[in-house]
Amino acid sequence: MSKLIDEIRFTQELIKKPSVTPKDLGAMNVVVKHLKKLGFKCKLMSFQEKGTDKIINLYAKYGNQSPNLCFAGHTDVVPAGDVSSWSTNPFGAKIKKGYLYGRGVSDMKGGIGCFIAAVSQFLKENKNFKGSISFLITGDEESVAINGTKKVVEYLKKKKEKIDFCIVGEPSNRSKLGQMMKIGRRGSITTHLTVIGKQGHIAYPLEALNPATPIIKILDELKSKALDKGNKNFQPSNLEITKISIDNSADNVIPAKASATFNIRYNTLHTFSSLKKYISKIIKKYEKKYKCKTQTQFQGTGTAFLTKPNQTVKKIQSIIKKETKQNTVLSTIGGTSDARFIKDIAPCIEFGLVGNTMHQVDERSSIKDMKKLKSIYLKIIKSFFN
Ligand SMILES: [Zn+2]
User: Fold this and answer.
1) What are the DSSP E strand ranges found in the chain?
2) I need a labelling partner for 274 at 20 to 30 A (CA). Which of 37, 262, 320, 342 fits?
3) pLDDT digits over 239-266, tens only?
4) Res 334: pLDDT
5) Contacts of 16 (CB under 8 A, 6+ apart)
């Protein structure tokens, strides 16, 4: 007889492990311990790259039949910040006035707790269901995310492990449970640009080459041209300049170098390489015009993707709507998540708790919401295997 897991007590146990990214400090073991009790086969995977911390990841599975429903999440959390501003110990997991407090409760230890509790109840009632349930849990989501889900997905690909559908338990709701589920994410590309001119006396500009002029022109053109108008599922792509710097200690010297950083959050009308081309073309144009030199470095943290709102997605949406009495929107807004890696092997959606206190002082989740999320997850599991 498998044991029932209580979503609140489990989440409290997990919060008490202060797994501030990239440290684990026993958090993954809490998940493994409970999954093993439920009969899951747990495979722990450690990854480390030169100059990065060693990260523990988990792929756990119950059953071998298809279809395979996967839950994905992370046990690492962001730092507590100013601890003295918290109304309670950020790793104490106290319940006050109907809220569970703690770093990571909404992002996303509470999501893990609700899913594992739902699974425990499902297994108790459906011992011989046809299919399998898996957990892909990483300790590297809040940090650089190179030794986490990305590498587990590579491993699963190599092993030809089939995942038929994946639910990522990130806090997808802004202020009310059921407002929003995510069916895709925008991509992100960051460009570091340096324009190299020639230093000289400010009174003799013809003897020098001021890199400030071309960098302003480049940034102006990039910022003022619309990248697209958006489409049915995505808002328009957007460029933001995040840094402009000219290192110059004198006021009468034309500087030698100017640099800038900008980021584009883009929709499915672009790719990393199409944007690289687009940006490079504009830079080259001004390089030629001003006879300066440029250096460019591009960094991508995931391309834009969309999970087609198929039957499974619509079914999940209707379960959430019914349970929460909200008009659940299918959305693609917000930052990136590990869904950007999982989408390579399985269709995924994101649905979890309310995220309006995540990464903040006094991060908290309502007990009511947690109980409701558990029951939503249970209904999703039941409908998936029905
Ligand atoms: Zn998260």
Assistant:
1) 41-47, 55-62, 68-74, 95-96, 99-101, 132-138, 165-168, 180-182, 184-185, 187-196, 200-201, 238-245, 253-254, 257-266, 293-300, 305-306, 329-331, 348-350, 364-366
2) 342
3) 999 999 999 999 999 999 999 999 999 9
4) 85
5) 91, 92, 93
Structural domain boundaries of the chain?
A: 7-185+304-385, 187-300
Ligand 1 centre from 280 Cα, in Å? 33
Q: Does 247 participate in catalysis according to the annotation?
A: no
Q: What are phi and psi of 210, to 5 degrees?
A: -85, 115
Catalytic, 7? Answer no
pLDDT in tens, 336-346: 889 999 999 99
pLDDT for 143 beyond 70? yes
| pLDDT tens, position by position, 64-111 | 999 999 999 999 999 999 999 999 999 999 999 999 999 999 999 999
Residues near ion ligand 1 (Cβ under 5 Å): 107-108, 170
pLDDT at 331: 95
Q: What CATH number was assigned to the domain covering residues 7-185+304-385?
A: 3.40.630.10
What is the dotted CATH code of the domain comprising 187-300? 3.30.70.360
